[in-house]
Amino acid sequence: MQIVRSKAPLRISFAGGGTDVSPYPEERGGAVLNCTISRFAYATLEAEDNGQGAVSVRSLDYNLSVNYAKPEDLVYNGELDLVKAAVNVLRPANGGRAESLRLFLHSDAPVGTGLGSSSTMCVAIVGAFQRHLREHWTPYEVAELAYRIERTELGFKGGRQDMYAAAFGGFNFMEFGPNRTVVNPLKISADVANELSYRLLLCYTGTSHYSADIIERQQRSYAEKKEATVRALDATKALAIDMKNELLRGNIDEMGRLLDEGWQLKKQFTEGVSNPQIDAFYESARAAGALGGKLVGSGGGGYILLFCDFARRAEVARAVQASGGSVTDFSIEPSGLQAWTVR
């Protein structure tokens, strides 16, 4: 029996989120600035070549253990569909051998947080299979496999940045076009990265979100060429470029203003991105000393990223807690997907 493990980092998105959601990047080109953090999705894969083809899955996040006796049982019914789709897509890469597979999965952030946890888990599963199958997929190929599993095989709504962030790791400026994605790793000095980490607060708002509804509304608004949506997406792409340039110059203070500008634009994508509870949460943090911030996912809830005046960081943290939220410790994670064999 072979045992392999993998881990893929979650991400925070600074700017450009939403411009990676089709059909916008195919028609106008998208751009996103993000980085990965020290929170991970983990996958363990045990494979036994016994000719049975059974699959068992234990998900710590959902407190769920499920057994599927044969490959035909892997039907999509809302129960661990991401895992089933990954097995259905990746098993043929092994020549269709009927191995019995056992998967154990858990994440440092559950679904609905805005940190890209489902896509990151998909990348972790692909990484475990890559190690098991002894494939030499590039980070681009890993990300596209994860995209195919989530967006094509399952039809889940969303963009591309989460898969690419998890596969590559670190600070990246990503460009999305009609035929290809280009990931530009950014060489950020240790001084700038440390100061940025010190000035940022990652806060759980106390509410989760269901991104598919918001993304579907955004796609519909863009398809109808609503002026406010198109204008906001274009401005968000330009903002991602500006923020990337300021970050490379080490202009940390400018990050707060640009985060706030990006959040105001994001709320124009479609209805439901924010709500009165999120607005009150954000304004409370701003009053306490946050210079800017934004929800790190598609909207509606989850985690919010705040940029603080260094002298008022503790006051902002207290305001977050008084609003029913909580502060999550994190650091910048420079590495992307990693996988190893258990000996």
* General shape: globular
- The overall pLDDT, averaged over residues, is 92
Largest sheet geometry? 8 strands, mixed
Can you count the beta strands?
12
List strands and helices in order, with pairings.
Elements: E1 2-15, H1 24-28, E2 30-48, E3 55-59, E4 64-68, H2 81-90, E5 100-107, H3 117-133, H4 139-153, H5 161-168, E6 171-176, E7 181-185, H6 190-199, E8 200-204, H7 211-223, H8 227-249, H9 253-266, H10 276-288, E9 290-295, E10 303-308, H11 313-322, E11 326-328, E12 338-341
Parallel strand pairs: 3-5
Antiparallel strand pairs: 1-2, 1-12, 2-5, 2-6, 3-4, 6-7, 8-10, 8-11, 9-10
Label this structure with key terms.
343 residues; alpha+beta; Ribosomal Protein S5, domain 2; 12 strands; four-stranded antiparallel sheet; Alpha-Beta Plaits; single chain; eight-stranded mixed sheet
Can you walk me through this structure?
With 343 residues, the protein is an alpha+beta fold. It folds into two domains: 2-187, Ribosomal Protein S5, domain 2, CATH 3.30.230.10; 190-328, GHMP kinase, C-terminal domain (Alpha-Beta Plaits). Helix content is 40%, strand content 25%. It has helices at residues 24-28, 81-90, 117-133, 139-153, 161-168, 190-199, 211-223, 227-249, 253-266, 276-288, 313-322; strands spanning 2-15, 30-48, 55-59, 64-68, 100-107, 171-176, 181-185, 200-204, 290-295, 303-308, 326-328, 338-341. Strands 1, 2, 3, 4, 5, 6, 7 and 12 form an eight-stranded mixed β-sheet that branches. The protein has a four-stranded antiparallel β-sheet with strand order 9-10-8-11. Helix 3 (117-133) packs across helix 4 and helix 8 (227-249) packs antiparallel against helix 9 (253-266). The termini are close together.
